[in-house]
Amino acid sequence: VTCWCDSVGSKMQISSVVASPGRLLQLCISTLCCVLTSVFSKVRRWTAGTCKGTASPVSPADSRPDEGEAQTPTSVNYHFTRKCNYKCGFCFHTAKTSFVLPLEEAKSGLRLLKESGMEKINFSGGEPFLHEKGDFLGKLVQFCKQDLQLPSVSIVSNGSMIRENWFQKYGDHLDILAISCDSFDEATNQLIGRAQGRKSHLDNLYKIRDWCQQYKVAFKLNSVINTFNVDEDMTESITELGPVRWKVFQCLLIDGENAGEEALREAERFVISEQQFQEFLDRHSSVSCLVPESNEKMRNSYLILDEYMRFLDCREGRKDPSKSILDVGVKEAIRFSGFDEKMFLKRGGKYVWSKADMKLEW
């Protein structure tokens, strides 16, 4: 008897009728285990809404599909984990579940996205280097660049868990590493929650910048502008670090994530006005790599995939999930994503994102 498993379940083929009762029992148990593993994973996706703090798979988004032309998932942000070791007060993708898809299922979903037109994948969290000490993330990065041959593979991280041996093992497959840094004052980072104990977030930032240079990975910075850093002048520090891009986000409220009764964060005290955000941008107008992201641009111009591989619709100020692309396919799921492809292009979502085309001086 020959037994094997695939993504759907377990199949058994009778190749010989000669088998000992013990061997037959062993193979039957093995087959049952394969079936249960596959079923359990699918049940966890479909019943995510019954878990504490997760949104229902049958959501408001399911009743209002987008009309018009089919959307192409050119650039996808895959938040494969929600767990994080930092406690940023404005975080809008909080640790409401500890679920992470099995590696092979995650790869299957990424392959579906590639077949549907994906050119860039960005891995985020939570903190993506936290799960399996970054090895899970590294395997996904390698798969996307080596097997799927995506033009661009990137990561957003707080940087606290990154070690040099990760670059040695997986750096060749990574185009861009974005590190989140909201202030160049350690006390401000502590107030925001972008810290772990008394470790220096800034010392780590400069160390990672050097590793990116050494292992030929494009270095990027992300900053969330809020009440604690809105009056800061970061020009000198940004110029010294020399990132290829500096994404500057306006603090955004998402119901059920960082606002509202069901939220794990209370971000209202971090919110700034449009005028305050513009004043910050004006103060840094001399920084050539600055890329501003207002709340209006953020809400519907990003394709966000959650830990169950469901697209998240943020148009109504909350995250309404589609069904998983593993269950209904990309074309069906993306109809409920709220994705505005025109706004994606208007905000410069498509740029030179492959390190091979950046012509950087390493």
UniProtKB/TrEMBL annotation:
Which cofactors go with this protein?
[4Fe-4S] cluster
Region entry Disordered, spans: 52-72
Which Gene3D superfamilies is this protein grouped with?
Aldolase class I
Family annotation (SMART domains):
Elp3
Q: Quick one: where is this thing mainly located? A: endoplasmic reticulum
Q: What Gene Ontology molecular function terms does this protein carry?
A: 4 iron, 4 sulfur cluster binding; catalytic activity; metal ion binding
| GO BP annotations, alphabetical order | defense response to virus; innate immune response; positive regulation of immune response
A Pfam cross-reference name: Radical_SAM
What are the TM regions of this chain, as residue ranges?
A: none
**Which keywords does the record carry?**
4Fe-4S, Antiviral defense, Endoplasmic reticulum, Immunity, Innate immunity, Iron, Iron-sulfur, Membrane, Metal-binding, S-adenosyl-L-methionine
Q: Which family does it belong to?
A: Belongs to the radical SAM superfamily. RSAD2 family.
Identify this protein by name.
S-adenosylmethionine-dependent nucleotide dehydratase RSAD2
Q: Which organism is it from?
A: Sparus aurata
Q: Which gene encodes it?
A: RSAD2
